[in-house]
Amino acid sequence: MNLPLSQGNYPEEFIAPMRAELTVLGFEQLMTPDDVDAKLKEKGTTMVVVNSMCGCAARMARPGIKQALSESPIKPTRLMTVFAGQEKEATEKARDYFTGYPPSSPSIGLLRDGKLVYMMERWQIEGRPATEIAADLVDALKQHC
């Protein structure tokens, strides 16, 4: 069965559940570069997740994010996400805010007033349990939010 491709590399039917794992937590999807600029330049703290179809996003990143947000008494002002390989221009624009870091997915950045203050790259996610990722994110939220 050939499913049509969405904006990106994968059929939207495959991606929708992966998007939902974050949107159910309150993450807003940024679909265009203009969306990214409008939201990431706002005052306050923003968690930006570069979501991905890969196994480490499914087994480690998204569960770790969910756990961190449920455990942390301190939350970012905003939760935003882009999907690597899907909204390519929006993802590139979000990565422009991750100054000094190569493209990585999944990845998680914390911005304060539009400036990057914390970054978790794929190499810090891949192969680690979600509980460790959550603990690192809780520490980052306490320090930067």
Descriptive notes:
The protein has 145 residues and is an alpha/beta fold. The protein has helices at 12-23, 33-40, 55-71, 88-96, 130-144; strands at 28-29, 45-51, 78-83, 107-112, 115-120. The chain has a 5-stranded mixed sheet with strand order 1-3-2-4-5, sandwiched between helices. Helix 3 crosses helix 5 (130-144).
Strand order of the largest sheet: 1-3-2-4-5
Strand percentage: 15-25%
Low-confidence stretches: 1-5
- The secondary structure category is alpha/beta
- Spatial shape: globular
How many strands, what sense, and barrel or not for the largest sheet? 5 strands, mixed
Helix amount:
40-55%
By DSSP (H or I, 4+ residues per run), the number of helices equals 5
SSE pattern, N- to C-terminal: HEHEHEHEEH
Instruction: Work out the radius of gyration.
Output: 14 Å
Please tally the β strands and state the result: 5
CA(first)-CA(last) distance: 46 Å
The average pLDDT score comes to 93
What are its keywords?
145 residues, single chain, 42% helix, globular, five-stranded mixed sheet, alpha/beta
